[in-house]
Amino acid sequence: MENLLYICERELYRLDMSINFKKSCCMRIGPRCDAVCANITSSTGSVIAWVSEIRYLGVDFSRFRRFKCSIDHAKRSFYKAANSVFGKIGRIA
Fold it and tell me: Model confidence over 80-90: pLDDT tens digits?
């Protein structure tokens, strides 16, 4: 996995781009999702963290034996905003 990261870093460096390691993370999905994994380090010495949940574009992905995602947080935020608007309008609409 580190070799793949090194190759990606090298290509991005040639394109004058870089990876933001503060916003990057790893998660394992599958039968061995509970296994402890070694840290992945970049060529600059930054470490990519292993996490149990990732939120990407409003969808939550969880570490589980099967692929599992949830949009509960996005739905909750939408209904919260909608109820706020309806509360301000009242019975006018």
Answer: 999 998 888 87
Question: What is the CB-side half-sphere exposure of residue 85 using CA atoms within 13 A?
Answer: 6
Here the tokens at position 36 are: 């402890």
- Given a cut of 70, whether residue 93 has pLDDT beyond it is no
68 is written with which tokens? 């599992």
What domain count does the chain have? 1
pTM of the model: 0.59
Each residue of 35-51: pLDDT tens digit?
Answer: 888 888 888 888 888 88
How far, in Å, CA of 11 to CA of 57, rounded? Answer: 26
In angstroms, the first-to-last Cα distance of the chain is 56
Structural domain of 30: 2-89
Instruction: With CA atoms as reference, report the closest residue to 73 among 49, 88, 86, 54.
Output: 54
